[in-house]
Every structure is written in C-alpha cells, then in structure tokens.
Design goal:
Blueprint (H helix, E strand, L loop, with lengths): L53 H5 L3 E5 L2 E8 L2 H13 L4 E5 L42 E5 L6 H6 L11 H11 E4 L2 E5 L7 H9 L5 E2 L5 E5 L1 H11 L18
Antiparallel strand pairs: 1-2, 2-4, 3-4, 5-6, 6-8, 7-8
C-alpha cells in the first residue's frame, strides 16, 4: 500500500490489506445501476469528510486533544474492522494506525503480613481426587484504531460534546459506526455504545435518521429492529466493504 497512514499489519494477525475503496457512483447521480434510488444523506451520495468521525464518537469512540490538534480512537473486537476503519480514515485524508490492546492480568489478592497464624486441630479431610488447575482461556484479541493528531479534526473537537445534543447521523457517519461496533442480533441490528455516556442524545439522533430503537439495559448497545428500519440502515451505510463479512454488514445474510 502506498496511501499515507496505512499501517504495517502482520499477515498472521490480520487478513490481507484491503485497498481504499474508490466508489464509482458519482455524487448527484439518480440511482444505483440496478435502478434503485439512492437514499438522501446516504454513504454513496455524500463525499467523505473528517466530520464523519462523529459516527465513532456517537458509539464507543474517544476524542483526544493535544497542542491545538485532535485525534479520534476506538477499540474494536475483530481484525476485519481494523482494515475497514483504516481504509475509511485514509479516504478522509487522515493518517491512521492501529495497535493490539494488551489486557492487564487480574490482580492477585493481597496477603496480610501481620496476621497471626491460625492453629488447626485435628486432621484435615483429604480430597478423593487431586483437583487439577483448569487452564483459563485468553480473552479474544482486541485492537485500537486511532487517527494521528491533526488540525483537520479541530472543528469536530471544538464542537464536541456540545454537538451531541443536535447530532446528525448521515450515511457516512453511520458507516463508520457500523464498521467499528455494528453486529446483527436475532430480529435486529446492534450498534455498540459507550456505557459511560448518556444514550438519550444518540437515541434522539437515530430517531431523526429513521432508525428508532432502544438502548440496552446495560447501556452498551443500541438495538434497531423492524424490517423497514433495517432496510433503511443498510441503504444509509452503503455497500459492504470487501473486508467485512457479509453476515455482519447491514443487509447481509443474517441481518
């Protein structure tokens, strides 16, 4: 790859690199080749922009600021999401990198130092069989995708989080959100959220986009159900990127 910001991704960790998509459909064209009308504000009718990273901030993304510049980062749980997000960020003129998330080992309980030994009288029961240590499976790999600190994100940084109250989720913004934290659920589709944030603003924005659903009880997901809403979501986010599994992208086999 020759595009600026493309990370060097080990082949044994991630799938082969996917080139940045060059969408052939021109802005303002009447519809898709198959005759279907393209939705207004869809990913295939609006030019990519750094402002689209609002979609990541509506979900689990984080905004960082330093020295008059800003960056956006997000943690994802699948390797294909790294490829799709990096390609989308590069298409918006942003340098992007990724890194594996190293999970901290669980802390061992502290042993009291000054506690007197407990005297045990009598014989302790002997277990019939020796209890073997059960190996603990390592957690699934996760990755952090992040932009470089850039002045191109200053407008987004200045407007956030106040802009969340009047959040507008266009197709390109939803496309980034789906790429980072979207997955099908029985009878619907799930968009990942940051449980530390208030989900009311996101709920209102999705209602305005025609994707009314509900926030899960744990605050980690926004659940969209109903055939018409799922069809609209698929139309807004556009065609599936080559690296994304068809069964995960909106409009796929199991959606």
């Amino acid at each position: 790859m020759t595009e600026t910001g493309w990370p060097l991704i080990p082949r044994e960790v991630l799938p082969p690199p996917i080139p940045v998509e060059r969408r052939s459909h021109q802005r303002g064209a009447p519809g898709r080749p198959n005759g279907r009308q393209l939705p207004m504000f869809g990913a295939e009718t609006i030019e990519p922009s750094p402002a689209d990273l609002t979609g990541l901030l509506a979900g689990p993304g984080r905004l960082g600021r330093i020295g008059g510049t800003a960056r956006v980062s997000v943690i994802v749980d699948d390797a294909w999401r790294v490829h799709v997000l990096v390609a989308e960020l590069v298409a918006r003129g942003l340098a992007a990198t990724w890194a594996p998330v190293v999970e901290a080992p669980p802390a061992e309980p502290e042993k009291p130092e000054d506690q007197d030994p407990v005297e045990v009288r009598g014989e302790l029961p002997v277990p019939e069989e020796e209890i073997l240590d059960t190996p603990v499976e390592p957690p699934p790999p996760r990755f952090e995708v992040r932009t470089a600190y850039s002045r191109r994100l200053n407008a987004l940084a200045r407007a956030w989080p106040e802009a969340a109250a009047e959040l507008f989720l266009s197709g390109p913004r939803l496309r980034l959100w789906v790429a980072a934290a979207g997955s099908p659920r029985p009878g619907g589709y799930r968009l990942g959220l940051d449980p530390a944030r208030d989900g009311l603003a996101v709920d209102a924005a999705l209602v305005r986009a025609g994707l009314a659903g509900r926030v899960s009880e744990d605050g980690r997901s926004y659940l969209i159900t109903g055939r018409r809403r799922l069809t609209r979501l698929a139309e807004l986010v556009g065609e599936r990127p080559e690296a994304a599994p068809s069964e995960v992208w909106p409009g796929g086999a199991s959606a």
